[in-house]
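Workshop exercise sheet. Pairs work together: one partner reads the sequence aloud, the other fills in the structure field after running the prediction. Swap roles for the next sheet.
Pair: D.N. / O.F.
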Amino acid sequence: MAETLLHVKDLEAWYGESHILHGMTFAVSEGEVVTLLGRNGAGKTTTLRAIMGLVGRRHGSVRFEGNETIGFSPDKIGRAGIAYCPEERGIFASLSVAENLVLPPIVRDGGLTVSELRELFPRLWERASSQGTKLSGGEQQMLAIARILRTGAPLLLLDEPTEGLAPVIVQHIGRILAGLKERGFTILLVEQNFHFAASVADRHYVVEHGRVIDCIPNSEASMARLQSQLGV
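Structure field:
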């Protein structure tokens, strides 16, 4: 049985005076793809940001590879081996595609090589000298994902990677995630697209009012059940 890579327990988080997470508790094992599902405002994105230390205040426990990280700064969390791809993608307007790609430091062996990234994302190499924000939405998402794959971080946090993208790009991202899982990467995914989530994930945590209310194995995750849990 795979070991637990990430264990979040009783995690609470605030933005200013707003108390967003109210005791998030869940675990992700090595090599799993796990989704956080819930309505807008349920606390899914805040959970990823709290894991990375990117909230105003957080309490509780976030253990990565058995080590407590709740007191770590965001840069130390990243260097420990957790990579974050935010919903807004974080592409630097003043940098080219190639410069954006090599910006994050390599934190471990095992990341994808330049040749492997070129094979996965050929369109990025065609646009290598273009400014990052002049790419299409799909190309920007590909760049945001490619950038963290270089780092060698074994745990990837992906926030809404398919939002607003054409179906053909969504399918391509699905194939990429399946390939990453085969390589041993562990992925925690925030996703609103139920069909996409069910196509890539091993398990789904349902989030409501800043806490997990259910865990659904993908084998039992019919669209009807997911939509019923989410009240849609």
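Discussion prompt: The radius of gyration is 17 Å. What would you look at next?
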